[in-house]
From TrEMBL, chain A:
<dbReference type="GO" id="GO:0005506">
    <property type="term" value="F:iron ion binding"/>
</dbReference>
<dbReference type="InterPro" id="IPR008274">
    <property type="entry name" value="AldOxase/xan_DH_MoCoBD1"/>
</dbReference>
<dbReference type="Pfam" id="PF01315">
    <property type="entry name" value="Ald_Xan_dh_C"/>
</dbReference>
<dbReference type="Pfam" id="PF20256">
    <property type="entry name" value="MoCoBD_2"/>
</dbReference>
<protein>
    <submittedName>
        <fullName>Xanthine dehydrogenase family protein molybdopterin-binding subunit</fullName>
    </submittedName>
</protein>
<dbReference type="GO" id="GO:0016491">
    <property type="term" value="F:oxidoreductase activity"/>
</dbReference>
<dbReference type="InterPro" id="IPR037165">
    <property type="entry name" value="AldOxase/xan_DH_Mopterin-bd_sf"/>
</dbReference>
<dbReference type="InterPro" id="IPR036856">
    <property type="entry name" value="Ald_Oxase/Xan_DH_a/b_sf"/>
</dbReference>
<dbReference type="InterPro" id="IPR000674">
    <property type="entry name" value="Ald_Oxase/Xan_DH_a/b"/>
</dbReference>
UniProtKB/TrEMBL annotation, chain B:
<dbReference type="InterPro" id="IPR002346">
    <property type="entry name" value="Mopterin_DH_FAD-bd"/>
</dbReference>
<dbReference type="InterPro" id="IPR016167">
    <property type="entry name" value="FAD-bd_PCMH_sub1"/>
</dbReference>
<dbReference type="Pfam" id="PF03450">
    <property type="entry name" value="CO_deh_flav_C"/>
</dbReference>
<keyword id="KW-0285">Flavoprotein</keyword>
<dbReference type="InterPro" id="IPR036683">
    <property type="entry name" value="CO_DH_flav_C_dom_sf"/>
</dbReference>
<dbReference type="Pfam" id="PF00941">
    <property type="entry name" value="FAD_binding_5"/>
</dbReference>
<dbReference type="GO" id="GO:0071949">
    <property type="term" value="F:FAD binding"/>
</dbReference>
<dbReference type="InterPro" id="IPR005107">
    <property type="entry name" value="CO_DH_flav_C"/>
</dbReference>
<feature type="domain" description="FAD-binding PCMH-type">
    <location>
        <begin position="1"/>
        <end position="222"/>
    </location>
</feature>
Length: 744, 338
């Protein structure tokens, strides 16, 4: 029976909100130490080649400069690639800062200037003179396309394309209706508000406390220990607050290496903060060249699906995303061929960015489906219903749950889709053309092994602890809600401690798995505390709960009550007193059930509807309305959940219309490396966004039945907008972002 | 950022003398552009002369019936000044089309005139750039040039002047008041900014020791027949791909006077008097507007990524003139284009 007093399921404001808006919440670059020195990175001007000379004399002469680290004087660090491979590293040789004279990408760190003040370090950094011998570089994926290869080593945790099924070529030939198109999008950089930064506090005796901008404190901890040959216990990494990351903090970035290197060498605390332009020198959403071929019968039923992708990676790592599998998963089709290849260009290794792979692949697939609907002459929603996948044909599994039909129905109804005139260019509002488009979204519902600890004190204070992070998603809040409900304490009494490598083990925060995984771990730990408390309560002489099992009691208002007879209870304080303890504590670990994951596929789904208004003559597009109906299992906190989906949608608007990291292929360098020229949506770009959570019950995906919401909001959004633009203008744009020039 | 000496000027003479004494000195007003450029090591002044205490914050009527705007009047104050809103709404609109409220609160009239290009390469000392380091070359010509100029370019530089305010000032025929060691000068706005030629590192005709003291606006008589139309890659807070300031004086159904200036297309606010002349003496109408646009763009030249600006500018000119003729100036708050 749902508990009407429960925090879970109720819109609950962020428990960390006051700390954030008052500035009490501190981020990686906001920690101080009495002996703090400041490091500023010097970045390479060329994309490939070698350093022939590096002159640090002028920099060293600046008053306050302590040291300039270069490849020539870098302290020794681990030798093997293996030591540099973090939890989410793709196959290959991870980048090693200041390793040698070789330059592998533009903006590569070539020196670290450390000084008594940030100002001195910054000035000195501008005086470091580097001479290079440039070698030919290539940063244009089109040029490297013909060298594309299937990566030999697969990246752990990323599904390679499934084997082809049926006879895709034959079926395509036989199909009366065809869609055949090339799709592409621009490279994007994550650009979280908070720049990447590490403050390394030298605690003496080789012990370090590191405040790092990262999505997993234990990932950084292991990396630092392994690269610098330290004992993991001597390295504590804290990321209590993260000012956005979107995947850019999954892997430890080079400022961490540099700050730790300097701290160990100088035996003092060091902070390194990257500048906004340096935020364009590492991970990014890779470029991808996609081709989709759909064959269908006259009713629009898919007969053949082919999706081929060449994705960019660096020269040193085989970064891989699942871009194409969605095309075999999302719709029913018996003849499918999906291929994914890599081509190396001279940039840093790309990395996961909000719904990696899905954002890319689904945007192409969902535009292709819109093209198909038009060719067949049926409504785009109807086309998707006709091809509805009842099971996962890629892996031949049932879904744990899939309320996508309801997403289409409820989303279409809220949007008013039935009033759509199917003909392109048929709808107007004054001078502007109006377009309505839609798309499907899909993302994996992951669940990861995670540990958590719960500790309830006799006074009623509950502390929850897990190394998990909150990158702005609301983890603090949902963990507090879950714990408060489980132990019947007011949420104000719950202290959530996360973002600290010394806490119970947790994976990086990524893949939208944290709510499910950390949440289940917290629930398990609280469950264990409940058991212990009940045991103590029952041990009281003449206990009113003497014969009660855990299923017979409720924890409410600091009491353990007999369900159905709340007058029979033991207070938590009395139970602890009886046991002679001041607090009760338990740590639990949850992990996915292998059998379930062998039998079932777990996905979050959504249906996105978008309205655009286009001033055709001038190419100016306004996204005036978006409705996104999401089926993501149980919603723990409708308020933070909605924020996550909103954020994803806004990023989808950015992908559709604005975001583009521009490479100068002659220089091999990203050029618009600042917020004035790398455009993300501003308030004026965002109008009505309606997020609907479609009821979905899932008792298999994980113990909590939640599927995660951090990423689903972006998947499909760009396609819905591109489809709306087509509907408005009759122009089919298959290359993102759709800037004004593309409509002229 | 380099180390520099900081001086606060209490009088105009002090400011001028301090600049004259050091060829690597820079004035600082709102600092919204200079400080950014210093952080990027693009500007490395040895001496920074703070002019914000100088008495240049008034907007005063002139004998001719216009206004003299002090160089330190913040962009926000200027845009919301009652006299500006009543008599020079085109200028108010141009200012409000630019930057963000926070920036406009800090930015000054003089600083806005002298803001530097937004060319990606100019901002990145890791790349060559003739404007930043004369003689190193212009990578934009063969590189990323989406935001670059289509008019008045040279083989040495194809950068644009990024200001919105200045486009409004060009259409309103403002005169810049400056003072240096050689005394006071008045420079018509059209002669203030330069084309790049073979000296793209020199943006304006202002001398090193000269302080901009004010901007004079002649009387204006366009009523509601004006507009500032700015087209950009997002609906707010982006520099113009193309912008158009247009003002018409219409008497008895005929254009008696026309002013037309473009932003985002050249190294300076681009006013075209020949195009204006084509409009005068004719009733306002799309055909005439198209002829004017043709005239403005006659010598336009595009590069790999910015050729679209030629067509975009043509359409923007026509639309802006339509807005001006109809007396329905573009709103800067409602992003729907009229
Ligand atoms: C993110 C961003 C977005 C922006 N978007 C826009 C936009 O869309 N449209 C737009 O028009 N502008 C935009 N701007 C630019 C903004 O308008 C300018 O930065 C501002 O007007 C500069 O004024 P300031 O007083 O801050 O100048 P400062 O930075 O103080 O000075 C700029 C230059 O002018 C010189 N100077 C200043 N005052 C005088 C004087 N009285 N005499 C002689 N020399 C002087 C300085 O020496 C310096 O070289 C944007 C700026 C930023 C940072
Ligand atoms: S266009 Fe001008 S400012 Fe830009 S790189 Fe070329 S010379 Fe430099």
């Amino acid at each position: 029976m749902p508990n009407p007093e429960a925090y879970v399921g109720r819109p609950t404001s962020r428990v960390d909100g006051p700390a954030k808006v008052t500035g009490a919440a501190r981020y990686a670059a906001e920690y101080f130490a009495p002996d703090l020195a400041y490091g500023v990175v010097v970045s390479s001007a060329i994309a490939r080649g070698r350093i022939t000379a590096i002159d640090t004399a002028a920099a060293l002469a600046v008053p306050g400069v302590i040291h300039v680290f270069t490849h020539e004087n870098r302290p020794r660090t681990a030798w093997l690639d293996y030591n540099y491979r973090d939890e989410v590293a793709p196959p290959g040789s991870p980048f090693r800062p200041l390793h040698g004279p070789e330059i592998q990408f533009s903006g590569q760190p070539v020196a670290l200037v450390v000084a008594e003040s940030f100002e001195a370090a910054g000035y000195a950094a501008s005086l470091v003179k580097v001479e290079y011998e440039a070698a030919g570089h290539v940063t244009d994926l089109e040029v490297k396309r013909h060298e594309a290869y299937v990566p030999k080593k697969k990246r752990a945790g990323v599904k390679p394309p499934p084997e082809p099924r049926g006879d895709p070529e034959g079926a395509f030939g036989a199909a009366p209706v065809h869609v055949d198109g090339d799709y592409t999008h621009a490279i994007e950089h994550h650009n979280p508000m908070e720049p990447h930064a590490s403050t390394v506090v030298w605690e003496g005796d080789g012990k370090l406390t590191i405040y790092d901008k990262v999505q997993g404190s234990q990932n950084s901890q292991k990396y630092v220990a392994s690269v610098f040959g330290l004992n993991a216990d001597d390295v504590r990494v804290v990321n209590a607050y993260v000012g956005g990351a979107f995947g850019s903090g999954l892997r430890p970035q080079y400022q961490l290496f540099l700050a730790v290197m300097a701290a160990l060498e100088l035996k003092r605390s060091v902070r390194v903060v990257l500048t906004r332009d340096q935020m364009f020198t590492f991970t990014h959403r890779p470029h991808a060249l996609q081709t989709i071929r759909l064959g269908a019968d006259e009713e629009g039923r898919l007969m053949s699906v082919r999706h081929d992708v060449v994705q960019s990676t660096s020269q040193f790592e085989d970064y891989q995303e699942n871009i194409v599998n969605w095309s075999g998963l999302m719709y029913r089709c018996d003849n499918v061929a999906l291929t994914h290849k890599l081509a190396q260009i001279d940039t840093y290794t790309p990395g996961d960015m909000r719904a990696p792979g899905a954002t890319t692949g689904v945007f192409a697939l969902e535009i292709a489906m819109d093209e198909l609907a038009e060719r067949v002459g049926i409504d785009p929603v109807e086309l998707r219903l006709r091809n509805y996948a009842e099971k996962d044909q890629d892996e031949n599994k049932e879904f744990t749950s899939k309320e996508l039909r309801e997403c289409y129905r409820i989303g279409a109804e809220r949007f008013g889709w039935s009033r759509r005139n199917p003909a392109p260019r048929s709808m107007r509002d004054g001078r502007e053309l109006v377009g309505w488009g839609m798309a499907t979204g899909c993302w994996e519902a992951y669940f990861q092994k995670t540990s958590a600890r719960a500790r309830l004190a006799a006074g009623g204070e509950l502390e929850i602890a897990t190394a998990s992070s909150d990158i702005g998603t609301g983890t603090y809040t949902i963990l507090a809600q879950l714990a408060a409900d489980d132990l019947g304490v007011p949420i104000e009494r719950v202290a959530v401690r996360i973002g600290d490598s010394s806490l119970p083990a947790s994976p990086i925060e990524g893949g939208s798995w944290t709510a499910a995984s950390a949440g289940a771990a917290v629930q398990a730990a609280c469950g264990a505390v409940r058991e212990k408390l009940l045991g103590l309560a029952r041990s009281i002489d003449g206990s009113p709960l003497a014969n009660a099992g855990i299923e017979h009691v409720a924890f409410r208002d600091g009491r353990i009550e007999l369900a159905g007879d709340p007058e029979r209870f033991v207070t938590l304080a009395d139970a602890m007193q009886a046991g002679g303890v001041e607090h009760v504590e338990a740590e639990e670990t949850v992990s996915p059930d292998i059998l379930t994951s062998m039998r079932y596929s777990m996905y979050t789904h959504s249906a996105i509807f978008a309205e655009v208004k286009v001033d055709e003559e001038l190419g100016i597009i306004r996204v005036t309305r978006i409705v996104n109906a999401v089926a993501a299992g149980r919603i723990l906190n409708p308020k933070t959940a909605r924020s996550q989906v909103l954020g994803g949608i806004v990023m989808g608007v950015g992908m559709a219309l604005e975001e583009e990291s521009m490479l100068d292929h002659n220089l091999g360098r990203f050029m618009n490396h600042n917020f004035a020229e790398y455009h993300v949506p501003v308030n004026a770009d965002i109008h009505d966004i309606d997020v609907i959570f479609v009821p979905e019950h899932d008792d298999k995906a994980n113990p909590l039945g939640v599927k995660g919401l951090g990423e689903i909001g972006i998947v499909g959004t760009a396609a819905a907008i591109a489809n709306a633009i087509y509907h408005a203008t009759g122009k089919r744009i298959r290359a993102l972002p759709i800037t004004p020039d593309k409509l002229l | 950022m380099n180390n520099f000496e900081y001086l606060r000027a209490e009088t105009l003479d002090q400011a001028v003398a301090a600049a004259a004494a050091n060829p690597a000195a820079k004035f600082i007003a709102g600092g919204t552009n200079l400080v950014d450029l210093m952080k990027y090591n693009v500007e490395r002044p040895e001496r920074v002369i703070d002019i914000t205490r100088l008495p240049l914050r008034e907007i005063a009527p002139t004998e001719e019936g216009g206004l003299l705007i002090g160089a330190l009047v913040p962009n926000s104050d200027l845009a919301y000044d009652e006299r500006i809103q009543a008599c020079y709404p085109l200028l108010a609109s141009a200012i409000l089309a630019g930057a963000s409220p926070q920036l406009r609160n800090s930015a000054t009239t003089g600083g806005n005139l002298l803001q530097r290009t937004r060319c990606y390469y100019f901002y990145d000392p890791g790349t060559p750039c003739n404007k930043r380091e004369p003689g190193t070359g212009c990578p934009a010509i063969e590189g990323q040039n989406r935001i670059h100029a289509i008019l008045g370019t040279s083989e040495h530089c194809i950068a644009t002047h990024p200001s919105d305010m200045c486009v409004g000032l060009a259409a309103l025929e403002a005169v810049i008041h400056v003072q240096g060691q050689g005394g006071a000068r008045r420079i018509p706005i059209g002669e203030f900014h330069r084309l790049p030629g073979d000296t793209p590192h020199i943006d304006t005709t202002l001398r090193h020791d000269e302080v901009v003291t004010g901007v004079e606006l002649p009387p204006s008589d366009y009523g509601s027949n004006h507009t500032y139309l700015k087209l950009r890659d997002r609906l707010s807070y982006a520099f113009a791909l193309v912008s158009v300031a247009a003002a018409l004086k219409i008497e008895d159904g005929v254009v008696a006077k026309a002013r037309l200036a473009l932003g985002g297309v050249a190294h300076k606010p681009w006013r075209d008097t020949a195009a204006e002349a084509l409009l005068v003496g004719n009733p306002p109408g799309r055909e005439r507007f198209a002829a004017a646009a043709e005239e403005v763009l006659r010598d336009a030249r595009g590069y790999a990524h910015n050729s679209f600006k030629i067509e975009l500018a043509r359409r923007a000119i026509i639309r802006a003139l339509e807005q001006a003729a109809a007396g329905t100036p573009q709103s800067q708050t409602d992003k729907r284009i009229r």
